[in-house]
Design a protein that fits this description.
Helix content: 40-55%
Radius of gyration: 21 Å
Bound molecules: 4'-deoxy-4'-aminopyridoxal-5'-phosphate
Structural class: alpha/beta
Shape: globular
CATH class of the largest domain: Alpha Beta
Order of helices and strands: HEHHEHEHEHEHEHEEHHHHEHEEH
Length: 375
């Protein structure tokens, strides 16, 4: 029977307790939210909502076509120029998601005969970029510039190293300076995904590459999402103008995809302008993450020291992680729950995201609930 194998996979998942289900988030949720990626608390900000609404009124509900046909509005250009300038890069190109931006950057920069050196902890979208690329991929130990150096030494043609700047599972930062030095030693490009760094790290939220002194470097390309700190939806690639021109001409997820919706473009632009005006939001998100970590470890939890706004707390098993997250929810707190197969090391975690708009009282309440519901 067609799709019979799906039943087998589904029962294996049920037996392992790894079934995932969708739960709609009520518009007026009473839960204290430490599960979303809205790091700066901008998704519901009136200026961002108005940016989306005004863009939709002017340009319509959708982009109407691919960017090279009818899907480029003035807003796309403004967002690209302002995003590039904010993060310190020559040019930027906006995509319909961060996922599409990562597929574009990796595939377009890894031609036939090239080598891609990829960190073992990279996000699924970078991994998929490696899978689609014409070059050969070598996966190296997590966070290890020496391993990257060694791998680059085996390249027989053009090479890039690919890494998240902040890893989404544990919230640890990549050794960007070491990675850049390794790439420079071999004339390789460095492609980094700053999904969790933009708006949180670097001066006023200019991102992890900016903080590491790599902004504007001719051999560095950065991908970002507009869906976390900027409270919107979409993604972008930032880098030297010649790389961006190359993507316009060669990146399939740019050429064959409908342009980013005007509302998302307008919301991201409004968020970027607000962040420029209120740079203290970035530092506050980091401060909230540190406060969460300090208070959690003080009450005996095993939590990874956060380098950005993601705080990861270890759970004893996948089952207990799911129950712990459900008990938190019942007590009024929304947290993320990471378990296999999303975590390559098999360790289940509660994943908390710090938000710049959390009060001290809310931080204490969250830590209290996590402690009270501990398995
Ligand atoms: N990279 C990383 C590290 C991410 O966490 C995410 C979002 N989960 C993405 C890329 C994908 O971005 P988007 O959601 O905009 O497609």
């Amino acid at each position: 029977m067609a799709f019979g194998w799906i039943d087998e996979q589904a029962s294996a998942r049920r037996r392992a307790g790894l079934v995932r289900t969708l739960r709609p988030r009520p518009a007026d949720s009473p839960l204290l939210d430490l599960a979303s990626n809205d790091y700066l608390g901008l998704a519901h900000h009136p200026e961002i909502i108005e940016g989306a609404a005004e863009a939709a009124r002017t340009w319509g509900g959708g982009a109407t076509g691919s960017r090279l046909v009818s899907g480029t509005t003035e807003l796309h250009g403004e967002l690209e120029r302002e995003l590039a300038a904010f993060c310190g890069f020559e040019a930027a190109l906006v995509f319909s998601s961060g996922y599409a931006a990562n597929l574009a950057a990796v595939t377009a920069l890894a031609p036939h005969g090239s080598l891609v050196v990829s960190d073992a902890g990279n996000h699924a979208s970078l991994i998929d970029g490696c899978r689609l690329a014409r070059g050969t991929t070598q996966v190296v130990e997590h966070g290890d510039p020496d391993a990257v150096r060694k791998a680059l030494g085996t390249a027989k043609g053009p090479a890039i190293a690919v890494s998240d700047t902040v890893f989404s599972v544990d919230g640890d930062a990549a050794p960007l300076a070491g990675l850049a030095a390794a790439c420079r030693a071999y004339g390789a490009g460095l492609v980094v995904d700053d999904a969790h760094g933009l708006g949180v790290l670097g001066d006023g939220g200019r991102g992890a590459p900016y903080a590491a002194g790599l902004a504007g470097a001719p051999d560095v390309v950065v991908t970002v999402t507009l869906s976390k700190s900027l409270g919107s939806q979409g993604g972008a690639v930032l880098g030297p103008a010649k790389v961006i021109d190359h993507l316009v001409n060669a990146a399939r997820t740019f050429i064959f995809d409908t342009g980013l919706a005007p509302a998302a473009t307008g919301a991201a632009l409004a968020a970027l302008r607000l962040l420029r005006r209120e740079p203290e939001r970035a530092a506050r998100a980091r401060e909230v993450a540190r406060a969460l970590h300090t208070r959690l470890t003080a009450s005996g939890h095993e939590a990874v020291r956060p380098d950005a706004a993601v705080v990861s707390v270890r759970a004893p098993s996948p089952d207990q992680a799911v129950r712990w997250a459900a008990d938190c929810r019942a007590a009024g707190l929304a947290v993320g729950c990471f378990r296999p197969p999303s975590v390559p090391d098999g360790i289940s975690r509660l994943r908390l995201t710090a938000r710049a708009d959390l009060t001290e009282g809310q931080i204490d309440r969250a830590v209290g609930i996590i402690g009270d519901t501990r398995p």
